[in-house]
């Protein structure tokens, strides 16, 4: 049984899978099969398989597709957009897929576009991913040359064209409606919902926005079926997922593993455990906008719901590890500074609250804070709760702050009472892992 | 109506509304920033947080944004719950981290929505210890100050400027808390509604630059309801005045919008807002002037110009009185020339004094014909005149050769809202409430069909027009006529001579457009036809009328038709005359005929610059034939040079009177402040003259005698109502001076007004007796009713805790509804009659080689009074002749050329400018400019190009 559908073509680092290689390895079989399926059937398959959005929210992908209006009265123009704006701190899974196996994404997109009836698909790619963008463009040319996409798709009268759009750079573009705005040339701010993009998205037309990894799940699912897909997972959710680890572990990287792989296994077997002399202090399970979990939560399976129940989110599934020689306040400051900078500026708690949180964290980190600043920081972070802000950016930014205040209360207090960062002196003696 | 519970009290609320608007409609105080009653919700500021409970067992509740949450029948909410209060305070606290502490020197202070909301939220102590971010400010032109440090990023400015008004040179730039609202580079804000930013901005980022030059706090301004005098739309305004401490005169400080749902709503145009400065102009006449005997030296003026000196009013009145007495005895003839820019009262008083037979409209024959044509169309029972909400509701619009963006700007703004009606329909289908602005605007798709035809392109509508076509007025009239025929599917014989009978062959592109436009108009439920006097072609109006009546016949109900009049009281003035009578040409003819015959003529000119009405030579001839010229006006306009006597007339905000707008609405404006010097209403000068001992001794028994009965404005108003049936409901335009609310008059000043005794303390320590107003139920002091909820007449929009203009919702029947207590605006009571089939006029362009000279009206530059306002005067373009690139090529007009044009009325030379916005065969010429007032009188006309002076070609390499 195929157990690594996402990465089976990825061999040596730095080697890109060409169309030739991709086809040899069974590529575009899913697409060819899909062309002979009814769109509704594809949507139903994806829905039945329980493919959940790999961008972090974990929404059922098939269900999302099914919201696109169908039937005679539906608007004829629809769009598929691939969200390749991978900007979540600590996350590099989409980059891996796009740089090494661009055709897998294209095939997934082709099937998705066919299912929703989109004749034009956009890849909205993070600007810094120039290598991935170039490889995708090459792959698009290759696929067009073989009439796998384009105006003369072999064996079909379906037409489909791909466009790669390099983002001007903004974290908020990861939010699908802000992405749509940016793609239209508007300010990258999230849109009000309803209408949802599936009804009125890009240029007011029905639009589906899916993450890179989500789309990469599709070709083999269509080729090999729901049962195969479901069996891939070890827990509740089916399929495989690219999990990653960064921080001071022995072997940072990303690996395709079954859904529901326990975190301990990822960190200890795949990432090789902590570097010598360091202990695991806590970790962010799925990017910078997830809550810290402590070492007591290592046996958690990487499942959307399991991690959610533990008080965090699986997010992108790329784990950021905090060791015991790194200042947690500094880490939170670093993250918060990122989120404050990336705020789109639309709603008040995010736009004006995050910079304030940064100022408070800076003061704490520098040892210039007063005891009441901790409460103020907690208050600020709580203001950014879900529903209080326009989109999920600020609640995501608040997650590490609030969980850090809980988990590392002593560290925060030490900064204030000592009037300096207690890690400052240590830091000089610990070599930074490259 | 759904019933909701807020903090234990039950309220009946409007179905489908959002919670914020519902709370405000119920009089509850809920702070907000980004929401605007005319622009809806976007959920940016998060200020209007309230708690929503699932049911009566839910004690926790959930924090929701009032502006983003639709009311639910039986819903339970709390404004007072602690988490909601805390969150609202927290949002203010966040906003304040970057807001400067400059309230004492900020011009918004005292009417700042941010101040009000901060107070309301209860945020008091500053906990933020960081530095505030700072921005660089921009130069945004002569109207608006920019102080970006004060910005709280509510996005209202860009939402108004871009989304609502269609501007594209103000935008949100940058991101996070550095987001910047400005232009890409310094420069004037191009949109004609930029002034509304002053009122839309909840704090002091955008403030009124003209107000800055003579700034006082809102509470120190005295105000009364007024009507904008700068075009025919009749927007309601609240001018603010305050004594100027250097001159000790009352001084008009600013104009702000005064909400009137049926006309201007929340917004007025920049001409209306910034045109007020003419009232403070150095050219204001404040004393009575009399011509001196000395001759003007020709190097300093024209030969017939007169030098003036000040004269005491009694002496001047005696002179005028003796002229009246002479006229009574047949030794003199008094001739009155009325004005379309002053009140019915002033016009009627003059008419009464000189007698209807000696009263002329002060308009050229063509201008008056246009008005009478327009009037006849409006009388047709198949025509309905839309209010602004009606226009916003139209689902198909045809604009016929009227650049409403410049002649009736507020109408263009309403048309812009109508453009989104298909989008709104789509939203209704998706069950998205219309107040969800951020959602509704995402629903792209086609605009409401708007077809715009003009001899020059409409810059205000071009981005929303489905089709815009450039064509000659003759072709446009023909197009409208053909449309009417298509709509009635009339195969029957037409005379062929009728205006809009389609005898002019249509250019190919118009011919192609016909069927589509006809189908669209026929399938529309609320079609709207827009035209006006701007083209100067009665045929255009006639064709518009023909089309509208055809549509009305087809749909079985009157067709909404908006026809723009040029000036504030054009339509009112026209009511005094039968079609074909009262023109200046007739007056000139009349005077010519009687030239040698006694008695000598005293020409009384009322608030009118005749050089804008007739070619200069004709005006001079008119003055030459008058033995004496008496001018009543507020400004030393060109006619004053020829006047023997000049009486200082009150400007609109200094007087009470009634104006008739293009929609036939009779609107009263009240005196906001007393004009300085001897300024008073023109009708009062006439009454004073009739009451002069000279007249009294002589005894007057004819028509002028009526003037003796007038002491109060309402007596003039009543006399008009009695004299002319169309004005019979004129007294309904407002109460008389005896009106009281619980025994009290209305106060022009706020209860916080300062300096009452100090203002004149340098003259006398005793407090002066306040001025009395014989005309209106307003006091000139703080005494009286101040609360705007007590009467719709109170123009000081203020409510406890709501110091900014946002307080208006306290005085509406529900947010966005009509002002509470406001009666419907009375309209002209004209005798309904089907419009006649007008004969098409001779086409102006008869010979090949001739060009059609079309007048184009400017937002800044064509308004007679606003041209005297400093900020606007700086923006007017120089006169020029615009022609299409094709014509320029065919005629050999090089860039920088000057065109010498031969018109029936004379020759003019203008610099040429080539534009792709002009129809072929047409030369568009800006008219109404102060530099070349008579162009308005000469156009439209056929012109021969007498000479083209191309610039000297520059040799390559030659230094220029």
What does this protein look like?
The complex is a heterodimer of chains A (434) and B (960). Chain A folds into 3 domains: 19-232, 3-Layer(aba) Sandwich (Rossmann fold); 240-323, Roll (Ubiquitin-like (UB roll)), CATH 3.10.20; 328-427, de novo design (two linked rop proteins) (Up-down Bundle), CATH 1.20.1440.230. Chain A has 18 helices and 8 strands. Chain A has helices at 19-24, 29-35, 39-49, 61-66, 93-100, 102-116, 130-145, 176-184, 212-224, 226-232, 263-270, 304-309, 328-342, 348-365, 371-383, 393-407, 409-418, 423-427; strands at 79-84, 120-125, 161-166, 207-211, 240-246, 253-258, 280-284, 318-323. In chain A, the strands form 2 sheets. Chain A has a 4-stranded parallel β-sheet, sandwiched between helices. In chain A, helix 2 (29-35) packs parallel to helix 6 (102-116) and helix 5 (93-100) crosses helix 7. Chain A starts with 18 loop residues before the first helix and ends in a 7-residue tail after the last helix. Chain B has 960 residues and is α/β, with parallel strands linked by helices. Among the domains of chain B are: 3-96, Ubiquitin-like (UB roll); 288-364 and 583-710, Rossmann fold (3-Layer(aba) Sandwich), CATH 3.40.50.740; 373-556, Dimethylsulfoxide Reductase, domain 2 (3-Layer(aba) Sandwich); 850-949, Beta Barrel (Barwin-like endoglucanases). Helix content of chain B is 25%, strand content 17%. Chain B contains 27 helices and 36 strands. Chain B has a 7-stranded mixed β-sheet with strand order 15-14-26-25-24-16-17, sandwiched between helices. In chain B, a hairpin with a 6-residue loop joins strand 12 (236-243) and strand 13 (250-257). Chain B is globular. The A-B interface holds A 170, 187-188, 191-195, 199-200, 203-205, 340-349, 351-356, 359, 363, 376, 379, 383, 385, 387-390 and B 42-47, 49, 62-64, 68, 87, 90-91, 94-95, 97-98, 127-130, 152-153, 155, 172, 174-179, 430, 432, 436, 438-439, 442-445.
